[in-house]
């Protein structure tokens, strides 16, 4: 068998959001929201498109949306790419879903709880190692719940899940493993076949069961994701290059200044050496290469001193004595 990846919008909606997937979605939500407890007994999959009720607000497009036991609404999103402001988008969709429950002149008591379940193929909370994070409204110091808690957020970070097949012990483990590793499998694992809803999800994800149109749609989405990932990667690389250039600019300027200063110093030394050699030739005649080499090793300060002394030399021996003293 070859399985499609549940991480793409197409596959995720096909597996969890179709009219024939209610039992799958119940098992999935119980696993990720209620730690495998059978809290959700029934649900209704509803249109995930959420139009704005106030002029000027953005429309929302979710992967799956359902009304579950207790008259709660769950909005589910599978996100592969870590795009800018994604964490704000999650809150926006949650708040708008909550607010859109009311029609004109309806009272606030009609509002019902909303849960946002977000699965990411990247790490959102690097400061903590848990795969599942649960956010609610609490008082900051005493940590008691806000009265009549109405909104909650669950995040499942797939890269943090490291368990192998033989380590899966809970329904939660099995569903997260399904989300993360299904494309790498060639058969339905025996440990998954014991859960009817998981076995059914694998059958839906079997590539052989797709129509030609579905297969083409899936491939188009996968190509679009890879293209977007390439754009993001290139953007990160360009950002790092610019940051590195800005970080290195002061050092580059300093090196240029030091280089110019060193060049000026060397120019002064060369000029002083030429002047000294010209004076020596006039005073004592030809100067042998060894003397020229020793003069070339003198510092700027020593060369300046030598210029003043040269006029008093009557022979090369006087110069050699001076060079020995300079060393």
* Main beta-sheet strand count, sense and barrel state: 6 strands, mixed
The stretches of 5 or more residues where confidence is low (pLDDT under 50) are none
- Strand percentage lies at 5-15%
Distinct helical segment count: 10
Widest sheet, order of strands: 1-4-5-6-8-7
Helix content: 40-55%
Secondary structural class: alpha/beta
Distance between the termini: 85 Å
Radius of gyration: 38 Å
Whole-number mean pLDDT = 81
β-strand number:
8
Given the C-alpha coordinates, what overall shape results? elongated
What is the helix/strand order? HHEEEEEHEEEHHHHHHH
Key descriptive features of the protein:
8 strands; 50% helix; 6-stranded mixed β-sheet; alpha/beta; two-stranded antiparallel ribbon; 327 residues; 10 helices
List the helices and strands and how they pair.
Blueprint: H1 9-16, H2 22-33, E1 43-46, E2 49-50, E3 60-61, E4 64-68, E5 72-79, H3 86-99, E6 114-120, E7 132-135, E8 151-157, H4 171-181, H5 190-193, H6 196-205, H7 212-284, H8 289-296, H9 300-310, H10 316-326
Parallel strand pairs: 5-6, 6-8
Antiparallel strand pairs: 1-4, 2-3, 4-5, 7-8
Summarize the structure.
By secondary structure, the protein is α/β, with parallel strands linked by helices. Helices cover 50% and strands 12% of the residues.
Structure explained in plain terms:
Helix content is 50%, strand content 12%. The strands form two sheets. It has a six-stranded mixed sheet, sandwiched between helices. Strands 2-3 form a two-stranded antiparallel sheet. The protein has ten helices and eight strands. α2 (22-33) packs across α6. The longest helix is centred in the C-terminal third of the chain and has 73 residues, at 212-284. With 327 residues, it is an alpha/beta fold.
């Amino acid at each position: 068998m070859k399985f499609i990846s549940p991480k793409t919008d197409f596959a995720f909606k096909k597996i969890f959001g179709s009219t024939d997937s209610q039992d799958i979605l119940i098992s999935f939500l119980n696993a990720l929201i209620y730690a495998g407890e059978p809290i959700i007994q029934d649900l209704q999959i509803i249109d995930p498109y959420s139009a704005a009720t106030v002029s000027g607000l953005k429309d929302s497009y979710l992967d799956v949306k359902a009304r579950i036991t207790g008259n709660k609404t769950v909005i589910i999103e599978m996100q592969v790419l870590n795009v800018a402001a994604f964490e704000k988008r999650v809150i926006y969709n949650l708040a708008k879903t909550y607010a859109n429950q009311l029609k004109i002149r309806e009272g606030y008591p009609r509002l019902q709880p909303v849960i946002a379940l977000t699965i990411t193929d990247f790490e959102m909370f690097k400061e903590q190692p848990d795969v599942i994070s649960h956010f609610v409204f609490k008082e900051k110091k005493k940590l008691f719940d806000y009265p009549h808690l109405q909104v909650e957020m669950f995040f499942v970070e797939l890269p943090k899940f490291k368990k192998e097949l033989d380590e899966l012990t809970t329904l939660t483990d099995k569903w997260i493993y399904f989300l993360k590793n299904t494309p790498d499998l060639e058969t339905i694992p025996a440990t998954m076949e014991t859960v009817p809803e998981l076995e059914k999800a694998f059958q839906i994800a079997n590539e052989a069961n797709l129509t030609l149109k579905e297969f083409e749609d899936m491939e188009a989405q996968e190509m679009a994701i890879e293209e977007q990932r390439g754009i993001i990667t290139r953007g990160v690389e360009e950002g790092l290059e610019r940051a590195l250039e800005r970080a290195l600019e002061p050092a580059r300027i300093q090196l240029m200044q030091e280089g110019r200063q060193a060049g000026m110093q060397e120019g002064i030394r060369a000029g002083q050496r030429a002047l000294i050699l010209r004076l020596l030739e006039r005073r004592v005649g030809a100067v042998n290469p060894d003397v020229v080499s020793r003069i070339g090793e003198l510092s700027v300060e020593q060369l300046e001193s030598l210029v003043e002394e040269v006029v008093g030399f009557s022979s090369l021996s006087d110069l050699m004595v001076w060079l020995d003293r300079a060393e």
